[in-house]
Write a structure and sequence with these properties.
6-stranded parallel sheet; alpha/beta; PriA_3primeBD_sf; Rossmann fold; GIY-YIG endonuclease; 7-stranded parallel sheet; helicase; binds zinc ion; 727 residues; 30% helix; 5 domains; 30 strands; ATP-binding; DNA-binding; nucleotide-binding; single chain
Length: 727
DNA sequence: TCAAAAAGCGGT
DNA sequence: CCGCTTTTTGAA
């Protein structure tokens, strides 16, 4: 009689399915193998997640595995365990989780053909050839990179930001030849090492000394304190033990420069996984890491599921970053899963940030994480001078106060650059008729349309609605339409008027949507000419602008008064990050924050004492109110074509759950603050428990009832464990 | 998620 | 009662 296996089938059902494993497959079943299976009337690819199972389904109803798709299991048993745990923890269908853990090409039955990457190295006679034309900067710089690395694959070269055309030019010019054997990885961590200060040294030795055992570190380092150097040194130590490294980076931070910094330190050993790669390229990186061919993975959220031969160190950079949390479907936190993986592999994990999340600070306070602090800025840089500008009853020029404009003027005169931060793109967030008070609202959302002047459009930032900018009021035909409030586009125009002689460069989603446009804007800024940068949070993340000595923050007040208790934490982090753009070793920076509430205690703490005390104050508040991270929470969201429909569904779930008591609370159904979004009405149930098992048990009941409820036509719902937003 | 089966529905 | 669309159901 053939054996039974449980298969994770890619469908939205919260359970695995049992299949017969016939002798005719010609091999034994193994955990983690991909298999082709009949399911309903279709044929799907699943993953074996349990062997020798006993099930009570009559054997005549069981179907058999059709085909084994792997030679070796695609997912090691350790990862299968992790997937099952995470499906459970986040209350998401197990089959869907396993589909997401695999690279896209492995989700189909296609035979995984492994064609070896082509590596290129300098040709034997490259030195005798004439140099490439001196204006061919890209070619010259690529030559230098390859010379240093020894050999690189097409993929790696592309990752470093060189186009195929540049590589081809070098090949055609005879500078390069194909390398037949992949380079013996050289562990050469000494080439461009920077000197470490005492704090960095301490951090590196703490991490190095715990290699080979599970240990959790929170590396709290202010901007410019040299966190990356700590990572690189720790990585070198880990490689020296013959082990591999998983490094997670927020999507926005995984730039060619970052890759280049790792690649130049560890030539030939780095692979990247990010959204800019094609499915095939991602698969190649995945394979190189899982086979042990490469040792260091630099990746974004989903890279946390990559299999390793011998994982020896996990690093999560900018651990507070929201992009680590998947915001739809399987709402996992890559940061939390990374910690779990480190535990599974018995290796240290380092969470790094200049503005650690309250979760992590709380963990550190509870001695679950060991705190490593980098207080000194590397070099002799002084802390920037941060000042609050009280703009109550001030005359603002398109949102800019006179003090800020004067400071900008002085900064530009001195030959430096100015950064103006406003987390709101477009020209103005509100278009109103002066005659009758009409306001341009979105027809599909409970939101105002944002005016985009350059495109002469009204756009909704919550759905894809857009329409032509009207010339007259559609209600009273008055032509006096007024733009209320500034956006980045308006600031750009206004600053161009004030400073016609300098470049004003705007960086937001509207100016950087084209591929590569971000890079060219950033390069333009880096050449150091006096200029003004205007932008949204895109400016705050990832890129550093060494010549900026004045940062102006236009409107941060919104974050202080949000319905979401996490808003101040996020605003504070953003503010500190933006402020961190100002100044460097030899040029002290200034940060001016325009505000209507200069007496706000949290804002004052942040400005006068810094992020740590600010965060401690927020944490104390959370403690007082028993909010996360002190307690644990989950949100069940529903949206439907009518509010009633969503609310009724949630109410039905609530009626099955335990009533609130002193260890557990349930609130809702509450309509979302912006109830209607993209034509759908949204509501939520908010669950909170003192202990995780309570929350988990209630969620299991909730999911069960949710699945059972004959769901009304258009209703959609989801469960979010450890949410980062209430709605 | 997907596709077959069942249930509605207007038109004769 | 046909032919069409919409809704429900079940999957090992
Ligand atoms: Zn009007
Ligand atoms: Zn809208």
């Amino acid at each position: 009689m053939s054996k039974l296996v449980t298969v994770a089938v890619p469908c939205p059902l919260r359970r695995g399915f049992d299949y017969l494993w016939p002798e005719s497959l010609g091999r034994d079943a193994e955990i983690g193998l991909r298999v082709s299976i009949p399911f309903g009337r279709q044929q799907l690819v699943g993953v074996v997640i349990a062997l020798d199972v006993i099930c009570d389904i009559p054997s005549n109803k069981l179907k058999a595995v059709l085909k084994v798709l792997d030679e070796q299991p695609s997912l090691a048993a350790e990862l299968v365990q992790l997937g099952r745990w995470a499906a459970d923890y986040y209350h998401h269908p197990v089959g869907d989780c396993f589909a997401q853990m695999l690279p896209v090409v492995l989700r189909k039955a296609s035979p995984p053909k492994e064609k070896p990457a082509q590596y290129w190295q300098l040709s034997a006679n490259w030195e005798e050839l004439p140099q490439p034309a001196s204006r061919a900067h890209q070619q010259i710089s690529l030559l230098a990179v390859i010379r240093q690395a020894g050999q690189l694959s097409r993929r790696q070269i592309k990752d470093l930001g060189y186009s195929n055309a540049v590589l081809n030019a070098l090949i055609n010019g005879g500078y390069l030849q194909q390398a037949d054997t992949p380079a013996a990885p050289s562990i050469d961590a000494n080439n461009t090492e920077l000197a470490l200060n005492a704090e960095q040294q301490h951090a590196v030795s703490a991490v190095s000394n715990s290699l080979g055992q599970f240990a959790r570190y929170l590396l709290d380092g202010v901007t410019g304190s040299g966190k990356t150097e700590v990572y690189l040194r720790s990585i070198a130590e880990c490689l020296a033990r013959g082990e591999q490294v998983l490094t997670l980076i927020p999507e926005i931070g995984l730039t060619p420069q970052t890759l280049e910094r790792f690649e130049s330190r560890f030539p030939g050993q780095v692979r990247a996984l990010h959204s800019g790669l094609s499915d095939g390229e991602r698969y190649r990186s995945w394979q190189d890491i899982s086979s042990g061919r490469a040792r260091i993975l630099l990746g974004t959220r989903s890279a946390v599921f990559t299999p390793f031969q011998k994982l020896g160190l996990v690093i999560v950079d900018e651990e507070h970053d929201a992009s680590y949390k998947q915001q739809e479907g399987w709402r996992y936190s890559a940061r939390d899963i990374a910690v779990k993986r480190a535990a599974d592999h018995n290796c240290p994990v380092v969470l790094g940030s200049a503005t650690p999340s309250l979760d992590s600070l709380h963990n550190a306070a509870q001695d679950r994480y060991q705190l490593l602090e980098l207080r000194e800025r590397a070099g002799i840089a002084s802390k920037p001078d941060i000042r609050l500008l009280d703009i109550r009853q001030q005359n603002l020029d398109e949102g800019l106060s006179k003090t800020l404009l004067d400071a900008a003027h002085d900064t530009l005169q001195a030959g430096n650059q100015v950064l103006i931060f406003l987390n709101r793109r477009g020209f103005s967030p509100l278009l109103q008729c002066h005659g009758c008070g009409w306001v341009a609202n979105c027809h599909a959302c409970d939101a105002k349309m944002t005016a985009h002047f350059g495109r002469r459009e009204l756009r909704c930032h919550h759905c894809d609605a857009r329409e032509a900018l009207p010339n007259i009021c559609p209600q009273c035909h008055n032509s006096q339409l007024i733009f209320q409030g500034p956006g980045t586009e308006r600031l750009e125009l206004s600053l161009k008027r004030h400073f016609p002689e300098v470049d004003v460069i705007r960086i937001d989603r509207d100016t950087t949507s084209a591929k590569g446009s971000m890079q060219s804007l950033v390069d333009g800024i880096r050449d150091g000419r006096p200029s003004i940068l205007v932008g949204t949070q895109m400016l705050a993340k990832g890129h550093h602008f060494p010549d900026v000595t004045l940062v102006g923050i236009i409107d941060i007040d919104g974050g202080l008064f949000s319905a979401d208790f996490r808003a101040p934490e996020r605003s504070g982090q953003l503010l500190v990050q933006v402020a961190g753009r100002a100044g460097r070793a030899d040029k002290p920076g200034r940060v001016y924050i325009q505000t209507h509430c200069p007496d706000h205690p949290a804002l004052l703490a942040l400005v006068s004492e810094g992020y740590q005390p600010f965060a401690q104050q927020l944490l104390a508040e959370r403690q007082l109110l028993s909010l996360p991270p002190v307690s644990f929470s989950a949100v069940i969201r529903a949206d439907a074509s009518s509010l009633r429909c969503a609310e009724d569904f949630l109410a039905a779930i609530r009626s099955e759950l335990a009533p609130s008591d002193n260890t557990w609370s349930i609130v809702g159904p509450l309509p979302a603050p912006m109830t209607r979004k993209a034509g759908r009405f949204r509501a939520a149930l908010i669950l909170q428990a003192e202990r995780r098992p309570t929350l988990h048990r209630q969620l299991a009941i909730a999911c069960h009832t949710g699945d059972q409820l004959s769901k009304h036509k258009s209703l959609r719902w989801s469960v979010d464990v450890d949410p980062i937003d209430l709605f």
